[in-house]
Model the fold of this input.
Amino acid sequence: MNTSIKRIVMSLFIVAVLTSCNYGETLQGYYVANQEQPNFISVDIPTSFVNIDETTLSEAQKEAYESIDKLNMLGYTLTDDNVEEYKVELTKVQNILKDEKYQDLFRGGNSTTGKIIVKYIGTDTSIDELIIFGSVNDKGFAIVRVLGDNMEPAKLMMLGNVMKNASTDENNVAEFMNFFNMVK
Done:
């Protein structure tokens, strides 16, 4: 009887451990693992840090802006010395974004200059996380995670032009904005 109880407890423990493990790398895990690595640049900013004149926003743009809590940005700078490492990192990110939990919203660019992919986690009407992934063939790649509550895809897309004109005192944010302006 004592042996049976031990087996049952051990079996439950093994099941709990196996079901709690995440076998694939996540985008958040990739951020954490690389935010301080060489060739990477990382910026986490609350939306209050981005200076947008809310009086110029339409009602839909204002709702979209208020639904965003913060932005996490991670970029990899390509140099002549790290081409092979760049290819490895680019492949890692592309594989993470192939996970079915990331749904396609938009794709653009070309194979000559670079590409941009916009994905999201959530439903068609309420996004929990918006992911913007861009790669410029001779510069590197960048990922922006837009985190918020009940973000609506159609309204978020209206913020694109507003964000181009946004100002900030942080130089790293300006670098990211310039990076995504190259991918067209």
The CA atoms of residues 46 and 105 lie 23 Å apart. Helices lie at 2-20, 27-34, 59-67, 83-97, 153-157, 160-164, 171-182. Residues 25-182 form one domain. The mean pLDDT is 79.
